Amino acid sequence: MIDEAPPIQTDPFDRPDPAWVVQLRDTPTGFLVDAMGGSGALDFRMAPAVADQYAFCGVALTCHTGPADNLALIHALEVVQPGDVIVAATDGFTGCAVTGDLVLGMARNRGAVGFVTDGCVRDRVGLQRVGLPAWAMGVTPNSPHRSGPGTVGRPVVLGGVPVCSGDVVVADLDGVVVVPRARLTQVIARLPAIREAEAKADEAVRQGAVRPGFLR
């Protein structure tokens, strides 16, 4: 433990209308990617730390911890609101975990619905009890420091994708997708047509189709 934590730079941000977030809930990540022109998914190597705890849909709360440190993540707990997904950028450092079951249990207690990092997590058994879906590059027992510096609420790049606090983050068995807040209404408007096209294609396959409809 440290007696006095160094300051962490925290920026305020606006969360999107909850009604918009609800409209993305239970939407396949593939549909969201299609609505954004074929991109938006984080690095495919990210995976849920607990295999059967993977799905979430919520508002991004970003923090940049940097390698081998989690002080910014600890500070982010003070900002978490119900429905948030904590997005912790470590600059891709996998030499130690950025967090484990205790901090993520506190995040869950504050209403977080998911956690994503480009680093590692630890305490897989404890994470299973916590029940908060946690996506990471891996699992390791190595522990981080709490020395800073770091930021909360500022834009980060994680898994090759820019993420801003206030974006919407959705996860399912295919991966994690970030929908920028500025594109939410556009994506929502495109989803009905995507769902209809997918339903028609599914029905065509059930009826015995042997080639895509665009090949005539």
Quick take:
The chain has 216 residues and is an alpha/beta fold. The chain contains 6 helices and 14 strands.
What does this structure look like?
This protein is α/β, with parallel strands linked by helices. The chain has one domain: Glucose Oxidase, domain 1 (3-Layer(bba) Sandwich), CATH 3.50.30.40. Helix content is 27%, strand content 24%. It has six helices and 14 strands. Strands 1, 2, 3, 4, 6, 8, 10, 13 and 14 form a nine-stranded mixed β-sheet that branches. The longest helix has 23 residues, at 184-206. The radius of gyration is 18 Å and the shape is globular. The model has no long low-confidence stretch (mean pLDDT 93).
Jot down its keywords.
9-stranded mixed β-sheet; Glucose Oxidase, domain 1; 3-stranded parallel β-sheet; alpha/beta; 216 residues; single chain
Gyration radius (Cα, Å) is 18 Å
Please give the largest β-sheet: 9 strands, mixed
Quaternary state reads single chain
CATH architecture assignment name: 3-Layer(bba) Sandwich
Q: How do the helices and strands line up, and which of them pair or pack?
A:
Blueprint: E1 9-10, H1 18-24, H2 29-35, E2 47-48, E3 56-64, H3 71-76, E4 84-89, E5 97-99, H4 101-109, E6 114-117, E7 120-121, H5 124-130, E8 134-136, E9 138-139, E10 151-152, E11 156-158, E12 161-163, E13 168-172, E14 175-179, H6 184-206
Parallel strand pairs: 1-10, 3-4, 4-6, 5-7, 6-8, 7-9
Antiparallel strand pairs: 2-8, 3-10, 3-13, 11-12, 13-14
Helix pairs in contact: 2-6, 4-5
